[in-house]
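[recover] target loaded
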């Protein structure tokens, strides 16, 4: 078995203002629509398939797993469409179709709290501030829903994500450990 340290973090709207998210030129937000479930799943897969979190949560390692996860999230009665977004880029080159490159989902957890699910940015679009923009856009949706606090969990080894959340005002409230079966081949294989 492997154990992954996870940070549970909280954002409190009474302690922080939420600035307007900024996207680089050529990128735009796409609000949640049920017919975009597969777009979210495909983007989630592209973001996580070869990353640490796909070891922590094996459903993120396969397209089918990402589709099941998106269906499960979107079918919950606590699903918050206004906290669920895609970021896409309109390429100027030979492909006129928008390229989805970031995704985030939100759930309500009771009357005053929400939770961020699966913040993901595709590897070739990282370092542009898209993760920050996704979280800010989602926080605006949580706030519009009347929630006072938002929680998320991050794998401690994912230092860029943890630093992003801290820089936005999330604070560490608990450390947990997730037990995951070791997927490495045994000596007898």
């Amino acid at each position: 078995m492997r154990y992954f340290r996870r940070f549970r973090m909280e954002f409190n709207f009474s302690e922080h203002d939420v600035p307007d998210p900024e996207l680089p030129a050529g990128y735009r937000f796409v609000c949640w629509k049920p017919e975009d479930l597969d777009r979210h799943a495909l983007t989630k897969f592209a973001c996580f398939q070869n990353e640490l979190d796909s070891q922590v949560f094996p459903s993120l390692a396969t397209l089918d797993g990402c589709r099941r996860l998106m269906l499960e999230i979107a079918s919950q009665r606590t699903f918050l469409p206004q906290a669920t977004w895609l970021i896409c880029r309109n390429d100027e080159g030979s492909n006129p179709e928008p390229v989805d490159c970031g995704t985030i989902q939100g759930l309500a957890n009771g009357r005053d709290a929400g939770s961020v699910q699966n913040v993901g940015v595709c590897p070739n679009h990282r370092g542009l501030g898209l993760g920050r923009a996704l979280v800010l856009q989602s926080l605006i949706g949580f706030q519009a829903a009347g929630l006072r606090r938002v929680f998320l969990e991050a794998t401690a080894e994912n230092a860029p994500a943890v630093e992003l959340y801290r820089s936005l005002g999330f604070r560490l409230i608990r450390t947990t450990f997730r037990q995951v079966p070791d997927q490495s081949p045994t000596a007898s294989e």
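[recover] notes: Strands lie at 2-12, 27-31, 85-90, 98-108, 113-121, 149-155, 171-180.
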